[in-house]
Design brief:
CATH architecture of the largest domain: 2-Layer Sandwich
CATH topology of the largest domain: D-amino Acid Aminotransferase, Chain A, domain 1
Shape: globular
Bound molecules: ligand MV4
Strand order of the largest sheet: 13-12-9-10-11-14-21-19
Largest sheet: 8 strands, antiparallel
Length: about 500
Amino acid sequence: MNKKIQKVLVANRGEIALRILRACRELGLSSVAVYSDADRASLHVGYADEAYRLGPSAATESYLRTDRILEIARQSGADAIHPGYGFLSENAEFAAACEQAGVRFIGPSSSAMRMLGSKTKARQTADAADLPRVPGSTQALGSLAEAKRVALDVGYPVMLKAAAGGGGKGMRAVASESELAGALENATSEAERAFGSGEVYIEKLIQQPRHIEIQLLADHHGNCVYLGERECSVQRRHQKVVEEAPSAAVDEALRRRMGSAAVRLAQAAGYTNAGTAEFLVDAERNFYFLEMNTRLQVEHPVTELVTGLDLVHLQIQIAQGDPLPFTQQDVVLRGHAIECRIYAEDPENGFMPSPGKITRLLQASGPGIREDCGIYEGWTVPLDYDPILSKLIAYAPTRALAIERMLRALQEYHVGGIATNVNLFRRILSDRGFRSAEIDTGYLERLLAESSTSTLESGAVRDNDAENAATIAAAIFEQSQIAAETKENGNAAPANAWKATGRREGMRL
Ligand code: MV4
């Protein structure tokens, strides 16, 4: 019925562009890369069969230019577009434009994306599919009186959230009724500024939750399977830092309940391709649906390692109309995988982004180590995008051995010329709390608070003082830009300039 995909345009950059291009090569498909001026010398550009310039470095003038990307697809004869994560990956208008142009969007339909893109709509769909979700409203709040009513009903403390939100933006914890009016005003105006929609709803606050997500795959023939969970609680300011599969908090029975709940949601939304249902899990192991991510995620490799599946192969096969080549019973989890996201940022200096030239790169390998990498020695990390450099992934029969393998790989790994967060992972993986899997979404902030002096001793190794000076100069420049922008729009300073772009566009990873 569907013509097979022959040529894939990868509308992304960095490690994920390379990851997808590798899958294309393995499947015998031709590939097309696109790049901005900052990425002329990036790995993905040389790896693809063809590469086309999008425009200037700013994402808004390159990787977010839907018109240019569709034009390049037409020009190159690409019959499918893989959006990766971030950028256009959750943009329903772009998916619709691809559908219109007769190019397959490797992801869900634009209508399924719309249905799950709004948090309030997703909560309504979750109710229709009988998923447990956090008690609270499923409609945007109409007034303060209504907010008071719902908050009283579910009980304080509560959380205000933006319907169009993500990444914690427009989110406010409210301890008691006296704080409600001010918090509602703040959350509404922040949501208005960040997403162009001031719609806010209320949930009961779940204390010290774990963040656990279920990977889904659904084909165009009504088959939908879950591929187990990922534990993503080790995060800082809504940026995941370490992810693993499986979660120490999930046993076989809970996995089955969360998995079938996620499958019900996908089926209710007419969802196809890869997707992830996010849940909060409380101390009593109650789980609550939060939202659906309608893209391939950064942390997908840990699921690939414990299931033995290739999610990008499967995404492409699903997009060309193939049925899933296995059923739920065939999915077997084996071993344990841990991922560390290596960023060009300096944990000893407020996690300031650290762009610049990579003067030395020693990579890790050996038994049980996978690296999904987008950098090379001599390459310059631009300051225009998310500063992710690489993902180091360890796989072993047990969690304990996966931790030891990761620590060994981190010893091998060295990036010279820029600051990275490599030493932070050494600390996390050596921490007793992490090693006994006592983690929740507040874990990393607590660790950083307790170790704010001791991490200085094991500070990032720099090649020389000149590079140090250059890095500091770049950081000062970066901060002055953020300061200028903050003045402009009155927002709290974002973690970096790339994030600011993402927020203006309403994108997130
Ligand atoms: C919550 C919550 C506690 N209670 N909702 C943060 C981002 C957004 N996707 C949902 N988030 C949360 N929602 C209720 N009702 C705590 C968080 C939360 C969180 C969630 C996932 C991963 C990291 C987090 C860090 C802080 C707060």
